[in-house]
Specification:
This protein has a 3-stranded parallel β-sheet, sandwiched between helices. The chain has a domain at about 1-85 and about 125-140: Rossmann fold. Helix 1 packs parallel to helix 5 (about 130-140). The chain is globular and about 55 Å long. The longest helix is centred in the last third of the chain and has 19 residues, at about 90-110. It is built from 5 helices and 3 strands; from the N terminus they run βαβααβαα. With about 140 residues, it is an alpha/beta fold. The chain starts with a strand and ends with a helix. It has helices at about 15-30, 50-55, 65-75, 90-110, 130-140, and strands at about 1-5, 35-40, 80.
Length: about 140
């Protein structure tokens, strides 16, 4: 199974990178074909440019900056997103994030998929045991 793992965190020694490394190791051991996309290393530009927005509803959308990303998404049979939630104590924000991801990924991109979101809160003071328990939770989902 082809799996696209998308990582976004600026620090290489972050928990996000640790979770990514552990996830990739586990999926590789299970036989997944992994494509890793680190948005910071690829200089991903999340802002929509004026010409892209103007072409959004036109006959031909300007996807010139996104061709590789679109191809990776189209080839993926599984998608793993690893990103920080910077406002960790504002639980109310996590529900909209989950809802937006679910609607955007499943509603707009594909039908018949299942969506699961695992969240690791209060990472600033997380014990090694708690981190490893979360890694095991990730592994259990695959």
């Amino acid at each position: 199974m082809k799996c696209l793992v998308v990582l976004t965190h600026p620090l290489k020694d972050s928990l996000c990178h640790h979770f990514c490394d552990e996830t990739v190791k586990h999926l590789t051991a299970k036989g997944y074909e992994i494509t890793l996309l680190n948005l910071y290393e690829s200089d991903f530009e999340p802002a929509l440019k004026e010409d892209e927005r103007r072409s959004y509803y036109a006959d031909q959308f300007d996807d010139s900056r996104l061709k590789t990303d679109i191809q990776q998404l189209q080839e993926a049979e599984s998608l793993v997103l690893i990103f920080p939630t910077w406002w960790v104590d504002l639980f109310i924000l996590c529900q909209p994030v989950k809802k937006v991801l679910k609607i955007a990924l499943l509603g707009a991109c594909t039908k018949g998929c299942k969506f699961q979101m695992l969240s690791f809160y209060k990472s600033e003071d997380a014990s090694i045991d708690r981190v490893e328990a979360f890694v095991n939770k990730i592994k259990a989902k695959f």
